[in-house]
Amino acid sequence: MKVLFATSEAFPFAVSGGLGDVSYALPKALRKKFVGVRVIMPLYSKIKQELRDQMHFITSIGVPVAWRSQYCGIFEAKYDGVSYIFLDNEHYFKRGGMYGEYDDAERFAFFSRAVLEAIPYIDFKPDVIHCNDWQTAMIPSYYKFFYFNRPGFENIKTVFTIHNIQYQGRYGKDILEDVLGIPSWAESLMEYDGDINMLKSAIESADAVTTVSRTYAREILDPWFSYSLDRILRAREGKLRGIVNGIDTDTYNSETDPHIAANFTVTNIRGKQRDKQELQKELGLPVEKDVPLMIMVTRLAGHKGLDLVKYMFDEIMKCKIQVAVLGTGESEYEWFFGEKAAQYPDKFKFVCDFNAPLSHRFYAGADMFLMPSKQEPCGLSQMISLRYGTVPIVRATGGLADTIPDAGTDDGVGYTFQSYNAHDMFGAISRALGAYENKKLWRELVRRGMSRDLTWDASAKEYMKMYSEITGK
Ligand code: GLC
User: Fold this and answer.
1) Which helix (H) or strand (E) holds 133?
2) How far does residue 336's CA lie from ligand 1's centre (Å)?
3) Same fold, 2-246+457-471 and 270-451
4) What is the mean pLDDT of the chain?
5) Pocket residue to mutate for ligand 1, from 21, 22, 130, 164, most atoms within 8 A of Cβ
6) Average pLDDT over residues 339-352
7) Closest ligand 1 atom, residue 19 Cα
8) Running DSSP on this structure, what letter comes out for residue 143?
9) Every domain of the chain and the residues it spans
């Protein structure tokens, strides 16, 4: 089986969120199972020079963008045994950031077209092109329009994975012919609620559609979660499935992590105490062994459930607890946490940063991890927390529901609440604080969490099963 994994970001080259982590870890896990895999992504100018130095030039080609032909350089590099292909065009990818540019539709239409055009030059004829999120959502339709019967392109199947349904590649109809290069007679394939919608076209055209947890695959059939796409998803429900993400257990390993003060394991957890002390010192919190330290490591975005935290903040501060938040994002929340840090200097710290090594110290040093998301396709940080013996407190939605069974059940590893309601969240926090006082119970909870299988192994197998189903191989 040969899989070409098309993505707009991948660790360590360019990462803005969970997609970047998945685009590194899933191909690596597939390769371990002897699936031939190549990752293909844009060559952003912000990719670090030391990583660029490892790339070699393959060739350059012309890529059609509607009626124009644009330059595309093809480069390759190996990282951790996986081969990465980079598509270069400075006009499109020499920018400050990865997304949010005025011409994103054209930039990623170019990229999607270039992925297909590059295939004859990379010495890799895929059985499956696995596309991810709206930036690659044009690939399944482009394949059906322009490539399916071209020599060298026969019998390729396409998979489309939704990591974030909120971003759909939604534009006015004027981009159809002039930017996307799709003939006007095919407008109905691309159109949704009066706009051009790339995600919708992928749901129509791909051979299989997946999302990153089972619960979320069910939830997005409902308008509350779907950002309006539930109608088309219900119509195509037969090809939709949920496969939960894993985490890269080499990167997140309390036994070997170089970023933390003391390493520890499930059978020898003493190091975690030191990690807590050191984190308290680093943050300027009183060093108190018996006061539970609850953290959040998150993008400060509304759907992460920050309104619940805002609403309950002063109540939480009345408890025997220390809280620390690491993250950047919407200014409303940056301001709020900044102010609260000034108001409660001995109990609350806010680090307004996106900082991977520090996040490892947060995970290792904390007792509890709060993630009250409104929606969460999968979520990775609750799993990272488990790995570091930090007990998650989550809203039971999407991947959080699938990965964190409640402490009240036999295999429970965390505290959950159902409704998107601040008092329910506070109830879950209170239950966790109560349990923390019972040392034996808490140790058992931590042990169970640390022992859970969070590897990509099972998920990689499910992806392979799906690839076989659609290709018949
Ligand atoms: C997106 C989702 C997150 C998921 C990640 C990787 O960032 O919001 O829930 O874990 O993609 O699939």
Assistant:
1) none
2) 25
3) yes
4) 97
5) 164
6) 98
7) 6
8) I
9) 2-246+457-471, 270-451
Q: How confident is the model at residue 411 (pLDDT cuts 50, 70, 90)?
A: very high
Between the CA of 403 and the centroid of ligand 1 the distance, in Å, is: 13
Average the pLDDT over 189-200 and give the result.
98
Q: Ligand 1: which residue has its CA nearest to atom 5?
A: 18
CA distances from 58 to 3, 49, 277 (A): 20, 18, 51
DSSP 105-130: HHHHHHHHHHHHHHGGGTT---SEEE
**Residue 49 neighbours by CB under 8 Å, 6+ apart:** none
State how far the Cα of 2 lies from the Cα of 155, in Å rounded to an integer. 12
Residue whose Cα lies nearest atom 7 of ligand 1: it is 18
Do residues 2 and 126 make contact, with C-beta atoms less than 8 angstroms apart?
yes
Residues with CB under 6 A from ligand 1: 17-19, 22, 163-164, 212, 245, 376-380, 399
Strands 191-192, 415-417: pairing kind: unpaired
pLDDT tier, 246 (very low <50, low <70, confident <90, very high otherwise) = very high
Phi, psi at residue 143, to the nearest 5°?
Answer: -60, -45
Question: What pLDDT does 237 receive?
Answer: 97
Q: Which atom of ligand 1 is nearest to the CA of 21?
A: 6
Q: Which homologous superfamily is 2-246+457-471 in?
A: Glycogen Phosphorylase B; (3.40.50.2000)
**Rounded distance, CA 74 to CA 449, Å?**
43
Tokens of 385: 């927390």
Under CATH, to which class is 270-451 assigned? Answer: alpha beta
Ligand 1, residue 245: give the atom nearest the CA.
12
